Amino acid sequence: MSSPPKLRTTFDRLRQVFLFEVGGLLLITPPFIWLSGVPLHDSLGLMVAMAIIAGVWNTLYNIGFDWADARLSGRSADQRPTAWRIVHALGFEGGLLLISLPMVMMWTGMDWLQALIADIGLAAAYVVYAYVFNLGYDRFFPVAQTD
Question: CA torsion angle for 105, 111, 116, 121 (degrees, to 10)?
C-alpha cells in the first residue's frame, strides 16, 4: 500500500493565495473599472473586499480540493492533469460567484442582473487567470516530496 502524496505546507499555501490575490487585483481591476462604469474608488474598494473574501475561500477550497484529489488519485497538486485543472478553476470561481454576487449588488448599486453579468465577467476572467496562475505556481513551486 503506497502512502498518500504530500500536500502543500501552510506557508506554501499562504504564499500561493497571497500571490494569486495580488496578481488578480493588478490584472483584473483596471478592466473591471473600465467595463463596469463603477467609479474608481468604489471599484477599488469592492475589488479589495472581494480579494479578501476570495483569499479565505481560496485557502479553504484549495486545501479541500488538494486533499480530495490526493485521496482519489494518489497524486500531488503539481501533478494534476489539464482536465482536473479546469475542474479546479471552475469550481473555485463558481463557489466564489455564489459568495460574491450579493456583495457586488450592494457595493455598486447594480440590480441583480447587472451584478450577475459583472460577476460572471469577473469569474470568467478569474477562471482563466486561476488556470494559468496555478499551472505556473505548480511549476515554480512544486510540492516537496520527502520520504
Answer: -80
Residue 130 makes CB contacts below 8 A (sequence gap 6+) with 20, 88, 89, 92, 93
- Using CA atoms, how far apart are residues 16 and 65, in angstroms rounded to an integer? 15
- pTM exceeding 0.85: no
- Non-local (6+) Cβ contacts of 129 within 8 A are 23, 24, 27, 28
pLDDT of residue 2: 67
- Mean pLDDT, residues 11-35: 89
Q: Which residue has the higher pLDDT, 28 or 6?
A: 28
**Span 40-74, pLDDT tens digits:** 888 888 888 988 898 889 889 988 998 998 889 88
